[in-house]
Write a structure and sequence with these properties.
- Helix 14 crosses helix 15 and helix 21 packs antiparallel against helix 22.
- The longest helix is centred in the last third of the chain and has 39 residues.
- This protein has a 6-stranded mixed β-sheet with strand order 5-6-7-3-8-9, sandwiched between helices. The protein has a 6-stranded mixed β-sheet with strand order 14-15-16-12-17-18, with helices on both faces. A 3-stranded antiparallel β-sheet has the order 2-1-4, sandwiched between helices.
- The two termini are 16 Å apart.
- The chain is an alpha/beta fold and 677 residues long.
- It is flat, with a radius of gyration of 30 Å.
Amino acid sequence: MILLSADDVSFGFPGHDLFEHVTMTVQEGERIALVAPNGAGKTTLLRILRGRVEPDEGRVATAKDVTIGMLDQERELAEAATVGQALALPFARQLERSQDAVTLAEKVAQGDRQAWHDYARVLGELELDDGFSVGHRIAALGEDVGFFEADFPRTLGTLSGGERRRLALAQLLLRAPSVMLLDEPTNHLDIRQMERLEERLRTYKGGIVIVSHDRTFLSRMATRVDELTDRGITSYPHGFDRYGEERRVRLEHEWKAYDLQCAEIQRQEEFIRKNFAAQKAKQAKSRERALLRISKLERPRDIWGPPAARKLRFPEAARPGRVLLSVENLGWGPPGRVLHRGLSFNLQAGERLGVIGPNGTGKSTLLWAIASAFDRRVADSGRVAIVEGEARLGYNVAAGYTDQTLADLDPAKTLIESVREIRGELPDDAAREYLGKFQFHDEHTGREIASLSGGEKARLALARLLLMPRNLLLLDEPTNHLDIPSREILESALVEFPGAALLVSHDRTFLERTTTRILHIDRESLDLQWGGYAEFVERRQRAAAPAPAARRPSVTPSTAPPRTRPGGAARPEQKTKNEERKTENVPPPPAASDHAARKAEQRERERLTRRHRTAEEAIRKLEEDLRAVEKQMATLSSSDWQKLVDLEQWRGRTRAEIERQTQEWIESGEALERMGG
């Protein structure tokens, strides 16, 4: 069933079209990954789907009774004062009925016979509405995103930006709308919290549109990938793991069809030029008319840029000694508090130590403590204290550290000036090309740093760090604010980096591709292991395999939160109850003179219902045909150029027909909704 549809949607700013001709549908049970480079308009499109932004052209429609929810922390949290109240907001009705039940129970205990009937009715309503499990559902989901019952009295003003984001995510999951629009849902979640979110979303029966740069999350969640460009959306139906190869094949065949059509047009134009005034003039004119009727293919473009631009090499630093970093019996924490003691390790050239663990366990503070050994700004900041042990740099080590303070950025400088502050010999063109690897394009490079967003400043700080000759890097969440290609650029550069690196990250794909050792930090212990992140996960799984699955103590078998229907839809029993209520409110039958009008209305409703179902079935069939033809195109050789061109044109016509049928589906659905059908 189609829950949500966008038909020929376009949006832009004065002088700049963000995207146009976007047509997409969200069906029940689909989990759609919406992918594009940063700045392409993914968040704007989500807001259009949610109804918070009006498109310049086109429209968005939903099926009857469909609810839409979007992760938007400021709006969602404005109604509550504390964490507990924010989590309880989606259950205001059930909690109110629970309070009514308590009040009525007191009256029953006092012998009020009338209260018996009201008490039984309220208990029945709570049973139908899953009201008895609300407390356990709130506690379980709050814990999944890092809020325990001891946190519930905290006021929202005491929460950090990341905590507010996690609270808004929990609130949205508790609301369980028919369609969820998730914009970077894994931001500020640690690895365990991401895994719990994945478990919940896998059992969700509504439709989901996901914007994320977390490749592991997309790989596990997405059933379809929609690639957003300024020309519209291209769909890849086989999930994120196959997306890269499918788009490579599609681009290859689009280029082949485009090149062959250009060659054929050039050949025909040459024939026309030579024969227009000669003996074959009639044939030349016929070919000229045929050329005018040709539907010319658009020049293909790779929105992620050419592969040659996805390379980055660190500048060479002096050759260091054997041990670049030595940490001995380190105890550290913020001033006045000790988080951990007794950490010891050495880092040698070629080693990349990944630091992982739950939020709040001291990972970033560890990097501050180590950085204070060579960075005077960190040492003087007062953010960290080493209570015992030490961290020492080895011989001839040039270390670099980046965190979220961004204190070394001069707000008055432009991006190009900031880059040339590090590498003064770079010409402007080279500086622009380098900044492009971190998603700063030509129109950005002349801007002052003061005008950048927090994410843009973090990307610039990372770009500056990687310009300096270093042989030891301390990177705290280096993939934050980077899109997928930029993360891959950084990964490749780190794998080839001849020095050593200490990396704090929750990006599982990044950790798998870069780390050679893992330090897992939790609230009670330190676990330093050889081997990369994939080996760490494998060892953890083997260790956990013999034991039964762990059960959170706050949720017992008898009180475990039941799975709810999407969009808060009622159970069959509740539906029956609602139908009974509707039956009670049915007005008396109309007069006999209204019989013809009622029959006409019934026929119109049936006609619209047939139109609606026919359009939905046509969309499904056309999408199947489109996938079959694209599979056929992938098998054609260059000698079949004419067939390839014909199929490419057929594909364009089919997409246009899908748009037409989608509009038919929207119009008939809206008409039915107006009739109350």
